[in-house]
Amino acid sequence: MIELTDYSEAGWSNVDARARARFYCEQLERGEILFVDASRFRVPQSDRAALLKIAPLSLRQKNISYAPSTGVIGGLGGSSTDEDFASAFARYSAHSIRFCAGLLGPYSDSWRVELASFRPVEEHDRQLSMTERNDLLHVDAFPGRPTNGARILRFFTNLHPHDARVWLTSDPIPSLAARQEYAAMMLDCGRIATSAASRAIANLMRAAAHVGIALPDRSSYDRAMLRLHDAMKGDAEFQADCPKYRHEFGPGASWLVFTDTVPHAVLAGRFALEQSFFIARDSLIAPESSPLAVIERLAGRAMTKQAGESVERQGAL
Ligand code: SIN
Ligand code: FE
């Protein structure tokens, strides 16, 4: 983990901002977590109060989501959303987007701003199905939101007034891939994702879009990452034997991490906020350390669609 030392809501301190932004981007891409002290990014007290009063029982989904592009809140039960809650959630999203745009200049021109989420349920001993469980190490891949090789960057804030949010992480994908047993797991996911059967299903899903049935248009890379998410959670040996690091993010702290690269699990904590971004491949500082590069290298073939192509090329790398 590295700590942000020269940027806050007020902007950069007296440093070469371009060089420092590139440094932080590269460290993140290589699998570091960037810790942001509570004094550098603040959620106003009145917004905190509005967010904390949401009862976890009112959840219809695993988390509550907010779409910055439409302003729609998802996952809350009941017919009317509390106005104070909705506007505090929207302000957090806008504030974290502004904060990250100022910090991560190399990304912000071409990133895709994704959903924000609020996590009001205590994670310790939470009862969820195996693939939904948050306490098993995994890399992120979103079934409904394929990235076609863009990377998933997430900004988290622990809103709990007293308790830390406790995470476990493992080594990032490129380091894990240096170990034979974990490379085999990744290769397996890559192979299944590029198999004839898997491509045929993807083509059917694409065809469905032409007749008005909206299904996610997943590249081989997206299919491989969804498999890897499940494979890690379902592999008891991986969970037991892989290198592990414990982190406690205190009340008010924020942190940034590429969750498609850093296997992570949350062991305890309540009331986290989060804003996601998809970082375009072209804006990466160290593209060779991306999970796309690692899995393509293992599989020996390209796994995404290039700009302007409607389907993936099937050739070898
Ligand atoms: C995740 O597994 O992506 C969520 C982690 C958290 O809620 O702290
Ligand atoms: Fe995750």
Describe this structure as you would to a colleague.
The protein is α+β, with helices and mostly antiparallel strands. Helices cover 34% and strands 19% of the residues. The chain is built from 10 helices and 13 strands. The protein has helices at 17-29, 45-52, 83-103, 105-108, 173-176, 180-193, 196-210, 220-234, 236-241, 291-299, and strands at residues 2-3, 7-8, 11-12, 34-36, 64-67, 72-74, 112-119, 151-158, 165-169, 245-249, 254-258, 264-268, 272-279. Helix 2 crosses helix 3 and helix 6 crosses helix 8 (220-234). It binds succinic acid and fe (iii) ion (FE). Residues 138, 140, 259, 264 line the site of fe (iii) ion. Succinic acid (SIN) binds next to strand 12.
Biggest sheet character? 8 strands, mixed
CATH architecture: Sandwich
Shape assignment: globular
Strand % is: 15-25%
Distance linking N and C termini = 34 Å
**CA gyration radius, whole angstroms:** 19 Å
Which ions, cofactors or small ligands are bound in this entry?
succinic acid, fe (iii) ion
Helix content: 25-40%
- Strand order within the widest beta sheet: 1-4-11-8-13-7-5-6
Name of the top-level CATH class? Mainly Beta
